[in-house]
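User: quick one, sequence for these tokens?
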């Protein structure tokens, strides 16, 4: 019997362990079975359990990972690089222990509020999460996973509107936090997106989480021309310019970054998954890589500005 047929063992596993056959996973995620098998064989991205007859069975966690993979692919990350991103996320979840259940509960509440377009409920939830979690956890563990799922899955009626609703809500709340944090700091850093390679919310969240007591981070507007950044830095005189992207930089972008670093009067740094993907290609260049995880980016930025981190 092939994977499209009915197998009593599959039915029993689905009932007892909430496992799903590959055809159901394809329906839920929009990823065809051939691609799911290829991700498993070539990249080890998803490792479903098997029945005695060899049929693949996927857990809800597997389905969640598939949606995360789609999110990273949508943002331009190569499929060969997604495995390390997932592994890093799983490691962080494992370290979190029981807190993960709380984050999943909050994610569920956020999804319910978004489905109802209930802004008052979202505001209450945001305040509750903010009071009980670190700044990094508010976004990395609760709100951005929900936002990323909605970025990927907009096929159903109303899903695009749900994403726009949550995106607008989060941009307003993050912008408000940035305004509250807008006080003089000993160091100032400009944060700009690589052209066309991130959403405004991702840039704003990075601005909020990258700053600290001694370092203020000012985001530049989406659409900022790369070729004019030298002029912007000449006039604003920041202590560093950080470029942000979740897409692997092309060889042309890498060359442009190297040329930009040569004419800037301040250091040039790269952040986001682009920094993880470009570490080898930028080794020895004047461009420093900060990484993709908020706490790591923040630590490396402090070290770099203190002269303790080489490019």
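Assistant:
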């Amino acid at each position: 019997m092939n994977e499209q047929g009915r197998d009593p063992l599959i039915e029993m596993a689905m009932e007892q362990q909430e496992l799903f056959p590959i055809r159901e996973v394809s329906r839920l995620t929009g990823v065809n079975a051939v691609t799911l098998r290829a991700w498993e064989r070539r990249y080890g991205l998803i490792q479903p359990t098997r029945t005695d007859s060899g049929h693949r069975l996927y857990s809800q966690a597997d389905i969640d990972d598939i949606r995360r993979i789609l999110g990273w692919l949508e943002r331009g990350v190569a499929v060969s690089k997604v495995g390390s991103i997932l592994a890093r996320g799983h490691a962080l979840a494992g370290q979190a222990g029981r807190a993960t259940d709380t984050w999943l509960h909050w994610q569920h509440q956020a999804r319910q509020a978004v489905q109802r377009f209930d802004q008052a409920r979202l505001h209450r939830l945001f305040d509750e999460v903010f009071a009980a979690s670190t700044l990094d956890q508010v976004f990395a563990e609760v709100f951005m996973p929900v936002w990323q799922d909605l970025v990927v899955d907009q096929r159903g009626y109303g899903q695009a509107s749900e994403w726009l609703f949550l995106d607008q809500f989060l941009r307003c709340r993050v912008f408000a936090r940035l305004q509250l944090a807008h006080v003089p700091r000993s160091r100032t850093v400009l944060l700009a997106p690589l052209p066309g390679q991130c959403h405004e919310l991702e840039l704003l969240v990075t601005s909020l989480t990258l700053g600290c007591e001694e370092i203020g981070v000012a985001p530049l507007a989406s659409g900022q021309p790369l070729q004019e950044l030298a002029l912007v830095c000449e006039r604003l005189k920041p202590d560093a310019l950080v470029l942000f992207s979740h897409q692997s930089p092309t060889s042309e972008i890498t060359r442009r970054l190297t040329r930009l670093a040569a004419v800037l009067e301040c250091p040039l740094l790269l952040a986001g998954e682009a920094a993880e993907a470009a570490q080898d290609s930028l080794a020895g260049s004047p461009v420093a890589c900060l990484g993709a995880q908020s706490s790591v980016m923040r630590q490396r930025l402090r070290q770099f500005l203190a002269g303790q981190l080489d490019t």
